[in-house]
């Protein structure tokens, strides 16, 4: 059996596992073990070859449609468990960074952040002087923590209360001097006019409404995370619909990141060239 076929067999088996878990949640060890095994498969060298075959486009779309929502909810659950574990051992941001960079769930996350930083630099953005709003960071807010470590003033917005509590835990522990705040609400309820950069998570509830509010109130850069069919991890992620992107009708497309294929998401950067009264 060829390696690409192994990949697709694993995708189908994992999809069936997600459906089972969604109906009857298993014990954590079973879920974590199976999740780790699949993460290893989609990071295997043959994974990119499997999804790059034009004959598999329909298969890829079907897998994404079937799995993205189920995987998102289970991935969030795992993040909360991991946050609980790491809170016992990570007393500094350096501890946190080292632990997450070596964790199987966050494989390639450092590459994603590196590519985003390269994009900021290419656009002449001085992160240390910017006010940044991160919408939908979850319980493990690596992105906004890394930006705060570079000197940015950070606002975290998340609809889910427990995720906000974890963000407060991390920020108060690693950055007790301040320069951050956490707001428990949906992004559609925020006035974005004070921010230089807004980062919109790839897995975000009510994303179209959030982008509509961004379009109405933002004045700076907007970074939207998505995925593409050439990336093996796109079998787990929802590509942002064109109709959602159209909500940013007053913004200009500027650039995008080009991370290695082992990274699940890439970022689209837009800019509003206007002054708001």
Question: How many separate structural domains?
Answer: 2
Instruction: Kindly report the name of the CATH homologous superfamily of the largest domain.
Output: Vaccinia Virus protein VP39
Rg result: 19 Å
**Adjacency order of strands in the biggest sheet:** 3-2-1-4-5-7-6
From the 3D structure, determine the CATH topology of the largest domain.
Rossmann fold
Number of helices: 10
Number of DSSP-assigned strands: 7
Q: What global shape is seen?
A: globular
Distance between the termini: 63 Å
CATH class of the largest domain: Alpha Beta
Question: Major sheet: size, sense and barrel closure?
Answer: 7 strands, mixed
Mean pLDDT over all positions: 91
What amount of the residues lies in strands?
5-15%
Q: Which class of secondary structure composition applies to the elements?
A: alpha/beta
> What is the N-to-C succession of helices and strands?
HHHHHHEHEHEEHEHEE
In terms of per-residue confidence, which ranges show pLDDT below 50 for 5 or more consecutive residues?
Answer: none
Q: Under the CATH scheme, which architecture of the largest domain would be assigned?
A: 3-Layer(aba) Sandwich
Helix fraction bin = 40-55%
């Amino acid at each position: 059996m060829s390696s690409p076929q192994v990949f697709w067999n694993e995708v189908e088996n994992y999809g069936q596992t997600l459906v089972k878990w969604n109906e009857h949640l298993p014990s954590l060890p079973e879920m974590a073990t199976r999740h780790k095994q699949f993460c290893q498969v989609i990071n295997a060298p043959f994974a990119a070859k499997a999804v790059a075959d034009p004959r598999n486009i329909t298969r890829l779309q079907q897998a994404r449609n079937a799995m993205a929502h189920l995987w998102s909810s289970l991935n969030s659950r795992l993040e909360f468990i991991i946050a609980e574990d790491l809170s016992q051992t990570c007393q500094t941001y350096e501890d946190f960074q080292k632990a997450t960079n070596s964790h199987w769930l966050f494989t390639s996350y450092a590459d994603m952040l590196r590519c985003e930083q390269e994009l900021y630099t290419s656009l002449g953005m001085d992160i240390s002087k910017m006010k940044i709003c991160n919408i939908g960071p979850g319980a493990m807010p690596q992105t906004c923590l890394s930006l705060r470590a570079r000197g940015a003033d950070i606002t975290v917005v998340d609809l889910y209360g427990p995720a906000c509590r974890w963000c407060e835990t991390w920020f108060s522990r690693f950055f007790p001097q301040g320069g951050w705040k956490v707001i428990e609400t949906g992004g559609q309820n925020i006035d974005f006019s004070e921010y230089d950069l807004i980062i919109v998570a790839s897995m975000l509830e009510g994303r179209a409404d959030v982008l509509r509010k961004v379009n109405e109130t933002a004045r700076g850069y907007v970074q939207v995370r998505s995925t593409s069919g050439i990336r093996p991890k796109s079998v787990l992620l929802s590509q942002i619909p064109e109709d959602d992107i159209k909500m940013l009708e007053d913004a200009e497309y500027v650039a995008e990141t080009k991370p290695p294929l082992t990274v699940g998401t890439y970022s689209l950067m837009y800019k509003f060239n206007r002054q708001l009264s």
